[in-house]
Amino acid sequence: TQGLTKSSKQMGDQIAQVFVAKAPLDQAKLDELEEMLIEADLGPHSAARITERFAAEKFGKDVDEREIREALSAAIGDELSGRQGEFDPLSGPRPYIVLFIGVNGSGKTTTLGKIATDLRRRGAKVLVVAGDTFRAAAVEQLKVWAERAGADFMGRPTGSDAAGLAFDAVQKARDEGYDVVLIDTAGRLQNKAGLMEELLKIIRVVKKIDPEAPHETLLVLDATVGRNALAQENIFGNQIGVSGIVMTKLDGTARGGVLVPVAQASDSPIKLVGVGEGVDDLQPFDARAFARTLVG
Ligand code: GDP
């Protein structure tokens, strides 16, 4: 269901209000529909495209709530088609190096923990690396996730060089036959230039060991920040390079629609969605299922 309870309820209720009974689709109803899509954070461009497409099919015709939902779901699904990507570290080279980037609070640590757990369940040898060497609490939290997952953990005292840690971790993973290395990183935005430099340095040193690494750079975005997620995608996408997006907290917001403009703005596909705080609350992104759930 892609966890969209709140977004789904909001949009579902609104559709029900606008289209109370079967009636010809007129401009007033189209305007309300477009407004509703914008409110759900789909963004003005997607909202306009979806509404136009809808108008082309149905203007002047009798439509009821069910048809609206079906047409909307199809249109949103089309907007997202081709923007869905797969994440499977076990189908790639070994050790498979995954870098997690994103601002503090976006859900990096939690997402990494969920992935570590899944990989361990599938029998993989996993190394979790606390590359956010600035926040002691973040290191501790990650360690707890790693221990619970049964993954090995590597961290350093606060203030240590993150790139040095990443280098040693990848070296260790090579020497000791790990399948996957999951590297958490810092996400403090107070000093954006400093953070970008740090992330680029991690990538540079990891490439010294394996020129193909990192095999994945997952950008973790929090759906509850709505259209701010777009700005974050822009910064990290342009400055660091991203291979896939994880959209978290889709369970906790009525702004889940923001996934649509993010998917369209980004060069990289949406790969995973976070739908809760629990260990099993991470799902492969499914564009059609997402679209169906979003419209209530
Ligand atoms: P980080 O600073 O980027 O590492 O973020 P954390 O992983 O520490 O997550 C910040 C908060 O968001 C924590 O309280 C998590 O439990 C919570 N969180 C992460 N992912 C999800 C999600 O998909 N749904 C919900 N409801 N909460 C989430």
What does this structure look like?
With 296 residues, the protein is an alpha/beta fold. It is 49% helix and 15% strand. The protein has helices at residues 5-18, 27-39, 44-58, 65-80, 108-121, 136-149, 162-175, 192-209, 228-239, 259-265, 287-294; strands at 23-24, 62-63, 96-101, 126-131, 152-154, 180-185, 216-222, 244-248, 270-274, 282-284. The strands form two sheets. An eight-stranded mixed sheet has the order 5-4-6-3-7-8-9-10, sandwiched between helices. α1 (5-18) packs antiparallel against α2 (27-39), α2 runs antiparallel to α3 and α7 packs parallel to α8 (192-209). The longest helix has 18 residues, at 192-209. The protein is elongated. The mean pLDDT is 93. Guanosine-5'-diphosphate is lined by residues 102, 104-110, 138, 187, 248-249, 251-252, 274-277, 281.
How many helices in DSSP terms? 11
Globally, the shape reads: elongated
The radius of gyration is 21 Å
Distance between the termini: 11 Å
Low-confidence stretches: none
Strand content: 15-25%
The order of strands across the largest sheet is 5-4-6-3-7-8-9-10
Order of helices and strands: HEHHEHEHEHEHEHEHEHEEH
Which secondary-structure class do the elements indicate?
A: alpha/beta
- Strand elements, count: 10
Mean of residue pLDDT values? 93
Fraction in helix: 40-55%
Question: How does the major sheet shape up?
Answer: 8 strands, mixed
Q: What ligands does this structure carry?
A: guanosine-5'-diphosphate
Binding site for GTP: 102-109, 184-188, 248-251
Pfam families: SRP54, SRP54_N
Enzyme class: hydrolase
Catalytic activity: GTP + H2O = GDP + phosphate + H(+)
